[in-house]
Design brief:
Length: about 800
């Protein structure tokens, strides 16, 4: 009997589904509106969830990823930096907490093919890198222990797509790849194209062979470790603290910060970074859009169910059980949700693609896809949406008097006060939820405007920027490096339209090459204390004038400041005000880079603040003359006209100096400034799109409810007009009804916004999340939209002709 009962139940459910589909076919307008509305809400929610799933929820794509850490140097909870070669040697020899450790140096190299040099993204790694992460190669042996020892034949691991695209078909194992004029033997192949490992992207992974260090710096290496089984992060922290203590005396002459400690962090935490801030904002936004969509469809279903009361009453009178009818009604709502979910998957696929292309730059987005977890999430949201859509219409249908339903006309006749209250609550809720979205978009827009009006500290007009890296093999001697830069800069100056050119190790607004520590002779750091740091740039004398940076005090660099001259430095006004408030910084001296045996540098000039750490940075910066052995530099070229007009001639001039040295990243400075705010701009666009959807849905909600009320009260309105009521009074009556609901919703939205905007504060710049000006104009805008949505049904009500309305009497 149980099997028969179950079979009968399944047959009834199937019948209900078929009946629901037939009903939707009979009302295509209602069906299309409801399904598309749900698909929009479900699809956008699933698209953002797929990003949340890839970035925040999914483990890193390695075996036992919870055991992977990244190792930093750290001297305070807010100040950490990458490792040095000396740190690496100390870790290898002294650590006890890790099963394996590895080092990565991200960057680029000149790939020589067919007599031409092309820059490619490269990650130099020590021999245990792929083994530490647990990456499996598709071909080849990969790196073996000892391959990273100096003097060993250099090997390289490449991605399969890179080899096919740049070299050709055939088995790459054992073949040769020339990077920066060094021949590397291919020892392994990774699947696919661009790879992201330990948060760094590259297509080519050559072996990193480091010599014995001679000092503690420079820093700039990414340290990766895999914890031994049974070791915790705290245990590794204690182990590395011991390593720090052991290596400190070895380099104390040039690195006196005894507070610096080698410190491990979860690799997943480092890779994800601040992405959770943007994703929380986006997911909260789409969740509000989904709730508004559900409220809209619930109102549509309620209106439709009121029109079916006579049908349901007849079926009940003919013997249909109320539970049977209730199941059918809920099945119809769930079918709506299911169809919205199916279409929502298509919306999610399109939304995910749009999010990848147009959304903020998020780590691990290349891993986002509509996998099983996302599909199950979509199914769950679709089911929940269907249930929520059908609950109140079901309650109304099941509790309404059958006798009154039989007496009412075919349209459903009278609408109960409970139904009107439900509709009012839904409309108010939609406006309450739309306000935080509109307010968030307004705050982000204000924040973006503030960012775009930040003074970067230089004149970006008519500036072209580029980057050149010289191969270490062919430019091992500093005299060769100096000769190349002299020839290159002289040749570029000869290009028609070029006014000035300079080179630098750091490029504003967000490509600073390094930070450097320093110790002021007038205000020395206590022995063993942490020295202050600042963005540091090594520049030619022409660089700051080419950028248009103003001289505040003293002088710029001169050609005689390099070479054997006493070391000099320039500092920004923010730097000078921080370390020498109320007095001149000119003539002050400082040790730089931790070297006490070196001559102290004398400050000879104070220049304007230049943003090197993004447009939100402080403007702190210090400058030293460009070093003769500086093989990698940015070029800054000021032109008389459009800087892009000289790109071709400049490329040609560099090829005449050395055809094996590629010039890359040629771009106008105005474009760089625009790119520096790309993430805030994209987040603003996305939230603006969600806010627009929410406002449109809320407006459609109040429009639909008022249109339904007008249709229900058509005869009453006709009688009023026949008795002499002014048509403008009819419009005012409908407007009052709608605006009361909207204002109540707006008040609720203000309270909701005051709580929810705290999440948004983390991504705002120079504007408070409770900025009352933005609150005011977004509220007025939402009221204006509500007024328009109420006026249209009011105008329709005022146009009712009494004779037509009273024909049925």
């Amino acid at each position: 009997m149980r099997w028969n009962e179950r079979a009968r139940t399944l047959e009834d459910v199937a019948a209900d589904v078929r009946y629901a589909l037939r009903g939707l076919r009979r009302r295509p307008g209602f069906a299309l509106t409801a399904i598309l509305t749900l698909a929009l809400g479900i699809g956008t929610t699933s698209a953002v969830f797929s990003a949340v799933n890839a970035v925040l929820l999914s483990p890193l794509p390695y075996p036992e990823p919870e055991r992977l850490v990244r190792i930093f140097e750290q001297n305070s909870p807010t100040n950490r930096w990458s490792l040095s070669n000396a740190d690496w040697q100390g870790i290898k020899e002294g650590q006890r907490a890790f099963e394996s450790v590895a080092l990565l140096r991200p960057g680029g190299a000149a790939l020589s093919t067919n007599g031409q040099a092309e820059w490619v993204r490269v990650g130099w790694v020590t021999s245990g890198f792929f083994r530490t992460l647990g990456v499996t190669l598709t071909r080849g042996r990969g790196f073996e222990e000892g391959d990273d020892a100096p003097g060993k034949p250099p090997g390289v691991v490449v991605s399969e797509d890179f080899w096919t695209r740049n070299v050709g078909r055939g088995d790459p194992i054992g073949r040769t790849l020339v990077l920066d004029q060094v021949s590397y033997t291919v020892v392994g192949v990774l699947p696919g194209g661009m790879q992201q490992h330990a948060g760094m992207r590259a297509e080519v992974w050559p072996i990193l062979q480091l010599p014995t260090p001679t000092r503690r710096g420079p820093f700039g290496f990414v340290g990766i470790g895999r914890l031994k089984k049974g070791f915790t992060l705290d245990a590794a922290t204690r182990d590395l603290a011991g390593v720090s203590e052991r290596i400190f005396p070895l380099w104390a002459a040039g690195f006196q910060d005894r507070t610096a400690r080698l410190t491990p962090y979860s690799l997943r935490e480092i890779v994800v970074g601040d992405a959770s801030k943007s994703l929380k904002v986006l997911f909260g936004a789409v969740a509000l859009v989904l709730i508004i969509a559900i409220a809209n469809v619930a109102n549509l279903v309620l209106v439709r169910s009121m029109g079916r009361m006579r049908e349901l009453a007849v079926r009940t009178a003919l013997g249909a059980a109320r539970t049977r009818i209730a199941r059918q009604l809920m099945t119809e709502s769930v079918v709506l949700g299911a169809l919205g979910g199916v279409l929502g998957l298509i919306v999610a696929a399109l939304g995910l693609k749009a999010l990848s292309l147009l959304g903020p730059d998020l780590p691990r987005m290349d891993e986002a896809r509509l996998d099983l977890r996302v599909v199950l999430f979509t199914a769950g949201v679709a089911l929940l949406s269907g249930i929520l859509v059908g609950i109140y219409p079901l309650v109304v249908s099941m509790t309404r008097s059958l006798a009154s339903s039989m007496r009412s006309d075919s349209r459903g006749g009278d609408t109960s006060r409970g139904t009107q209250l439900f509709q009012s609550i839904m409309v108010a809720a939609e406006f309450a939820l739309a306000l935080p979205l509109l307010l968030g978009a307004g705050l982000l827009l204000q924040s973006l405007s503030n960012l775009q009006h930040v003074n970067p500290g230089f004149d970006a007009r008519h500036l072209l920027t580029a980057r050149i890296s010289l191969p270490a093999v062919t430019y091992s001697d500093s005299s060769l490096v100096r000769r190349f830069w002299e020839d290159a800069l002289r040749s570029i100056r000869e290009v028609p339209g070029v006014l000035e050119v300079g080179r630098t190790s750091s490029l504003p607004p967000d490509s600073f090459g390094a930070t450097n520590n320093f110790d002021l002779l007038d205000k020395p750091v206590a022995p063993g204390g942490a020295e202050p740091v600042a963005p540091w740039a090594w520049v030619t004398p022409t660089l700051l004038p080419a950028l248009g940076v103003p001289l505040i005090e003293g002088r710029f660099f001169q050609e005689t400041d390099n070479g054997g001259a006493s070391p000099v430095a320039l500092v920004s006004r923010a730097w000078a005000e921080r370390y020498f408030p109320g007095e001149s910084a000119i003539g002050k001296r400082m040790y730089t880079g931790g070297c006490r045996e070196c001559d102290a540098s004398t400050i000879v000039g104070v220049v304007g603040n230049v943003k090197y750490e993004g447009l939100t940075g402080s403007g702190d910066a210090a400058y030293e003359p460009a070093r003769q052995d500086q093989r990698e530099s940015f070029l800054v070229i000021r032109t008389a006209g459009d800087p892009l007009n000289v790109v071709g001639p400049i490329r040609a001039r560099i090829r005449t100096v050395d055809p094996d040295v590629p010039i890359r990243d040629l771009a106008g400075m105005e474009e760089r400034l625009s790119d520096s705010v790309a993430n805030p701009r994209r987040l603003t666009w996305l939230l603006g799109a969600f806010a627009t959807s929410a406002v449109v849905l809320a407006a459609l909600g109040v429009f639909g409810v008022l249109s339904y009320i007008v249709a229900e009260q058509r005869r009453e309105i006709g009688v009023r007009i026949a008795l002499g009521a002014d048509r403008s009074a009819i419009v005012g009556m409908v407007l009052r009804r709608g605006m009361v609901r909207s204002v109540i919703g707006l008040a609720g939205g203000v309270l909701l916004s005051l709580q929810g905007m705290r999440v948004l504060q983390a991504v705002l710049f120079d504007v408070s999340a409770t900025d009352w000006t933005t609150f005011a104009w977004t509220s007025l805008l939402l009221l204006a939209v509500a007024c328009l949505a109420c006026w249209l049904p009011g105008r329709k009500a005022a146009s009712i002709e009494p004779i037509e309305a009273l024909k049925g009497e």
